[in-house]
Each structure stands twice: as C-alpha cells, then as structure tokens.
Amino acid sequence: MKRALVWVLLLGAALAGPCAERPYTLETEEGLLGGEEMSYDGEALVFEGRACLEGKGFRLEAPRIVYLEGEGTFQAEGLTGLAQGWRLEAGRLEGKLLKEVRLARGRLRAEAAELTLSSPPEGRKVRLTTPAYRVRAEKAIFTEKEARLFGFLATPCPCGEDLRLSLEEATFLVDTGELRGEAHLGLFGLEVPLSEARVNLNRPPRLESPLVFSASDTGGYTLGLRDFPLPRPGEEVGAWKRRLTLLASGLTTSKESLLFGLKEGSLGAEVRLGYGAGVRAFWDDLLFAATPLPPDATTPRLEARYTPRFLLEGAELKPFVRYAETASAQGWTLGLEGRYPWGFREGPFSLSLEPGLLLALYPGRDPYLSLWGSLRAAFREGEARAEVGYWGRLEPFGARNLFAYEARPEGQRLDLLLAYGPLEERYYLENPLGNRMVGVELAYGDGALGRFRVGWREGSYPEWLLAYAMPEPDRACCQALWLAPQVGLGPEGVSRYGLTLRLYDGCFAYELKAQNVLKGQYGEATGFSLGFGLRVR
User: Where does the UniProt annotation place the signal sequence (predicted)?
Assistant: First the structure.
C-alpha cells in the first residue's frame, strides 16, 4: 500500500496527460489510473469522480474504477473513451477485458463481446454495421487506419446470409471503407472462390441477377443468362468487368436464336446463331457488326461505327462516323448529336432547360436534321408542389434520314402536375398533331395503405385505367408479399389487365410480372406477356 501511495503522489505531479490532471493517479501495468477521489479498503483502490484509465493508444472514463492491486486487474461499469481513434462505449470492465463494447468511427459502427486493453486492442465476436453490409468476425484488431479481421463474413441481406462474402483474414481500411482479402462468394449453399477481392462496405454491391426469363404470345420464350460475371483477382465485388451472355430467344416460334457474348469493360464480342445470325464486336467507341440475313429492312447487313463522346463547358457532344448497308440503302454517314442541360434553383422555384440536335450528312444526298428541347418549371413549398414540363422534337427538313440509326422522329408532350401531401393530379397531352393522346390521372399514396391510381386517357379510343400498389415492405421485414394489380376499361369492356407480384425473403426480391393487352392504343402491341426478375434487397 505504501508503494502505491508513493506512485499516487509522484505521478500526480509528474505526468501531463489528461488522466494525469486528476488529483489522484496510479501507474499500473496497463496504464495510468486516476480520479478526483480515492479510497482503499485493504484489498482494492477505488477511484471515483471522473475516474480514468489511460494507456498506449486508449483512454477510458467511468464513474468508478476499482483496481485490485494484488491481481493487477480492474472492475468498472459504464465506460466511455477512445481506442486507436475509435469512439468507445463499454458496459463493464472485468479484469483486463472490456465487455459489451460498442465502437464508432465515421459512419462505421462495431460491437464486440469483449475487447482487450492491449495496444492495438483486440476484439472477440465482432459485429460491424456499415451503410451497405452486416459484418461479423471472430476476431478483430483495431488500429487508427485499419482493422484486421479474422473469420470474417459480410452480407448485404437485411436478414439471413443467403448471399455472403467470407474471408479467413481481411484488412479493412477505415478511411475509405475498402476491404481486401482472399474471399469466397456464397449464394445459398454454393461457395465460389474469388481469390484476392475488394469490397467497399460504405456502398451497396452492384449485384444484378443475370437470369433472364420472359414470354409473350408473339415473341415466344426468352431464357438464359445476360452479363453473367466472371470475377478476376483484385476486382471489387459487384464491379466485375468480365461478363458472359448466353441467351436463347424466340423459343417456340419460327424466330429462334441463340446469342453468345463475352465482354470485358468496353471490349467485347457477340455471336448470334439462328434467326438474324451474325457477329458484333466493339471496343470503346468503335463497333463492327455483320448480319448476312437481316431479320428486317432496317437492320444493316454490314455496319461499322465510331462514336466518341466529349464534354465541353457543360455541353455533351457525340460526333459519329458510320458505314452501313441495308436492304434500302448503303453508304457513309457523318453526324453530330449534342445536348446542353441547364438548371436554375431559387428558394422553392426551379427551372431546367435542355436543347439538343442531331445532324446527319450523306455524300451526294440531302442532310437530315432533328431539333429537340425540354423545359421544366417546378415549385415546392412544404407539402405543396407543382410542375409543368414540355418536350418537343422537330424535323425541319422532314424525315429524310437514310438509316434508322440516326432517326429522331417528331413528337411533343405537355405535362402538368399538382400535388399536396399524398394527393397528386396529373394532366398530359402527347402529339397533338399526330397520334394524339390526352389523359388525366389522380393518385393517392399512403405509407400504410399503399398507392391508389385512377386515370382516363383518349388516344385511338377512350380508356379508363385503375391501379393499386401495396406499400413497399420495410427492409427490416424478413418475409413479405407485395402486389400491384391494374386494369383498363374501354368502350367494349376490359381493354387490358395485369399483375406484378413480388416475394421478399431475407435477402432477395423475386418479381413476376404478367400483362395482357386486349386492345392497344394506336400501334401498341397486343397479347399476353410474362416476365421474371430477381434483385438483392
């Protein structure tokens, strides 16, 4: 006890750290212990009143810290402080282990069953909560710039681990949110080795289902894989550049075909067998395609194209040079497509304007020109909002395009929106001088009841549209069913009907969309269609 009191008196004056400023201090093997009050019961020193424990790389405070001198251990509850730059809260301190620990650094949050007082501190049974993933690790070593994780598993799923990334050992860079290590990607019971992989825990993975399935009365069945990822070592998870496509379309019809494609970034090639057989290759802004037996009059037998893109003072310019051979024409095209978006906002008012044009020149022929523009004005104040928008496209010299590639047909659309809170009314007018379409729509959306929509439009015939969509399930909900039915009514009865069905589990949303158009507007295709989709929640 005398030795301890000597340390209290000497170190209280000699050390200059924050804990050293307390009236009573004691040097221990783990660091400097201090407080504004001190008592001794014969077995333990009790520090109270902003009690603190400060060692290499960490600083802790608690209302009361007990030090068992004979054992060299501590007891405390309700601790806060810093460890290697991480903000720390702990339920209690037992011996030399912090229990029920919560750590935070930027947007990253971590929980550990226990954390050592060593330098650097080591956590056991660690769980991290990041903006895009749920993460757990058997062990973690925390430093100011990184965390070393062992027995690591991360998943973007709100419930369960049907989609997961597992690593025996990984390095997490705190400032960037990047994780690196030898990884395995798990899908249900399947494990795919990725070798060296990177993942950014601050943003959701760009994972899209490569599975394609759809069907229609006229187009038959489409089934296969589109942009199936082929990971390479060192790539970020979800940002894989190498992709495979194997897609069969037109099944059960006379237009059956098989598409095989492989691409890596902006370099790729495709081969189509069967109906519309041909090859297609591209590299950055260059494209070459050959279709010996084109499926229609607008598809070129041979095409070569160069389409660079430039940004100049806010304007986007896309010049192009193209050679094509079709059933009706062949030759070179020299063209330019451009647009200039502009926007303004002041208080509740906003205004956006975007003019654009396309000019195509043909050797020995008249040029083709298409001009277009859009204008949108909006007002938003509290729950009230109003928008008016106009879009129009004009061909000053007429539809003189030689090929379908550069065609930009004339059209117009006027939109007016008035809304207050969950109630919304919309009016639109399309192509008043051509295939005229005019419509009015009233919608009401409620977070608990869903969205109700009723509309009327008149094109080639008058039609009422009724639709409902259930409220989207909360991401924390592990199982949910979502429905969105719709029906159209014309002068002769039902003109169309459809249903979108989604099933949510702990990780994925499975979507089945069915629609049957009995009577279309103008040239709208009729018949039954079915589509399937899958995405990560």
Answer: 1-16
Contact 448, 461 (CB under 8 A): no
Do the beta carbons of residue 256 and residue 275 sit within 8 Å?
A: yes
Identify the DSSP state of 208.
B
Alpha carbons 173 and 137: distance in angstroms, whole number:
15
- Mean pLDDT over 345-350 rounds to 95
Q: What are phi and psi of 4, to 5 degrees?
A: -65, -40
Cα(78)–Cα(61) distance, rounded to whole angstroms?
A: 8
Q: DSSP letter for 296, please.
A: S
The residue type of 397 is F
Its pTM stands at 0.77
Cβ count near 504 (within 10 Å) = 22
Q: Tens of pLDDT along 88-112? A: 899 999 888 899 999 888 777 889 9
Which of helix, strand or coil describes residue 376? strand
CA 265, CA 263: separation in Å to the nearest integer? 6
At a CB cut-off of 8 Å and minimum separation 6, what does 2 contact? Answer: none
Q: What is the distance between the alpha carbons of residues 154 and 135, in angstroms, rounded to a whole number?
A: 4
d(CA 296, CA 365): 24
For residue 2, what is the enclosing H or E element? helix 2-14
Burial class (CB in 10 A: 0-12, 13-18, 19+), 419: middle
Cα 290 from Cα 280, distance rounded (Å): 6
**With 0-12 CB in 10 A as exposed, 13-18 as middle and 19+ as buried, what is 51?**
buried
C-alpha dihedral sign at 314, 415, 344, 422: negative
- Those residues with Cβ within 8 angstroms of residue 202's Cβ, 6 or more apart along the chain or in another chain: 107, 130, 131, 132, 177
- Calculate the alpha carbon distances from 523 to 404, 417, 435, 459, 526 in Å: 18, 27, 10, 11, 9
Mean pLDDT of 171-195: 81
Sequence-separated (6 or more) residues with CB below 8 Å from residue 52: 18, 19, 22, 32, 33, 34, 35, 59, 60, 61, 62, 65, 81
Residues 6+ away with beta carbon under 8 Å from 42? none
pLDDT given for residue 4 in this prediction: 42
432 phi, psi to nearest 5 deg: -60, -20
* Nearest-angstrom CA–CA distance, 358 and 402: 13
* Cα 157 from Cα 168, distance rounded (Å): 20
